[in-house]
Structures are given as C-alpha cells and as structure tokens.
Amino acid sequence: MPARQFPDLLFVYGTLRRGSDHPNAARLAQDSEWLSTATLTGTLYRVSWHPALVLEGTDTVTGDLLRLHDPAASLSWLDAFESCGPDDPPPHDYRRESVQVMTAQGLVSAMVYVWNLPLEGLERIASGDWLRA
Fold it and tell me: 33-91 pLDDT, tens per residue?
C-alpha cells in the first residue's frame, strides 16, 4: 500500500498568522516556510479569542500561505489544536479542507481549517483580516 500523501501548503487566517502572539503561531513558523500573503473568498467571524472561517459569502479573507516542512507531523498537531483530530469527539469545531487561494502569482490549492459549527451569535469580521479586527 502506498504511503498516504499530505499536502504541504496551508492557508492560515487567524491566531496562527505571522504577527500573532499565540504560542502556536511561533511553533508553526518553525515548522513551515512563509510563502506569501494570500486571500480567499468567504466570511470571517469572531468566536472569542479566535476566528472562524466559512467558505460561503463574498468577503475577501486575508491570510498567510505556508509550506509545511513535515506535513504529516504538522497536520497532526494542527488538527488537535483546531479540535478536529482523531481524539476529539464530534462535532468538531473545524474541518480541514483543500481550497483555492489567490496569491500574487495566481491561484494555488492549499489546506485550510473551516468552521464546522453554527454561526448563530458570532460577529462577522467585515475586513476579513483577523490581525486588523
């Protein structure tokens, strides 16, 4: 049986971005190479100390495009951080999906963590930029 393939590009839009003071942002910076600022179309919401992204809507959501050095290892701890790992009971807060993100060089496919719970009571972040919100 062939080894499972893990994508190496990740789009982050909240507490894991460069400029965030969350400890896991520093960990991710060590585990990856920052490639560029990127955007996608969706809607960003404030959950509390962290944002939630849904892929519905027409807002431009700003984030960072990263190349993971060891995707299998990084995605394991990232899934746990995003409450969607194998040890997390459903319903999971997030789900990991492959999406198209826009860079200065054009569209690329990257993994992103998408909000998986109801939006009721969450505040929309109109700017689409967590670091500016």
Answer: 999 999 999 999 999 999 999 999 999 999 999 999 999 999 999 999 999 999 999 99
In the chain, the amino acid numbered 97 is E
Query: At residue 88, what is the residue type?
Result: D
**Do 99 and 73 meet the contact criterion of CB atoms below 8 Å apart?**
no
Residue from 65, 58, 63 nearest 109 by CA: 65
What domains are defined for the chain?
9-121 (3.10.490.10)
Sequence-distant (≥ 6) Cβ neighbours of residue 5 within 8 angstroms: none
| d(C-alpha 128, C-alpha 21), whole Å | 19
Q: pLDDT per residue over 109-119, tens digit each? A: 999 999 999 99
Q: How many CB atoms lie within 10 A of CB 59?
A: 20
**β 94-103/9-12 pair status:** unpaired
